[in-house]
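Here is the promised in-class demo. Please do not try to memorize the tokens; focus on the logic of going from shape to residues.
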């Protein structure tokens, strides 16, 4: 049976994956000239990203309160293929974290501009916000893949492992 840490991690990844799909649908809809479809898809992406953030923060609280840790370390078995990819994990993780923090207020601003009908400002902002948001979403899934399949998550047992 999966640990609470693994279950939280999988929920976070699922919200990230669903948000990624909604972002791609939203992009396809606006490229097709469908503003209404674009707005709906991006609204879904925004809600899924907010749910991701809530579950992510809950997972951090769970780590602190139940496991007396602040983070789960990337700790694949020595000699495994995952161990040899540690450099790639950190190459993905570090910009992912930095860009996730930086892009969040701009995503909120882009959504606000759209809801106010300020589409020219929205368009100027989202020319760079959208690719960063998509990058953060996709790399979030990749971070999960590394943690899940390297066995790093499983090393944190149900309580205090």
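The designed amino acids, position by position:
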């Amino acid at each position: 049976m999966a640990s609470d840490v693994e279950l939280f991690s999988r929920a976070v990844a699922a919200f990230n994956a669903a948000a990624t799909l909604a972002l791609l649908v939203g992009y396809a809809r606006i490229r097709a000239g469908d503003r209404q479809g674009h707005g709906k898809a991006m609204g879904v992406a925004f809600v899924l990203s907010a749910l991701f953030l809530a579950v992510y923060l809950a997972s951090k609280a769970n780590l602190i309160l139940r496991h007396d840790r602040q983070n789960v370390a990337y700790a694949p078995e020595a000699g495994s293929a995952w161990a040899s990819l540690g450099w790639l994990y950190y190459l993905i993780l570090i910009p992912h974290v930095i860009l996730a923090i930086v892009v969040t207020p701009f995503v909120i601003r882009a959504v606000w501009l759209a809801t106010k009908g300020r589409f020219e400002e929205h368009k100027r902002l989202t020319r760079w916000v959208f690719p960063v948001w998509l990058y953060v979403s996709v790399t979030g899934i990749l971070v999960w893949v590394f943690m899940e399949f390297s066995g790093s998550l499983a090393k944190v047992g149900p309580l205090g492992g």
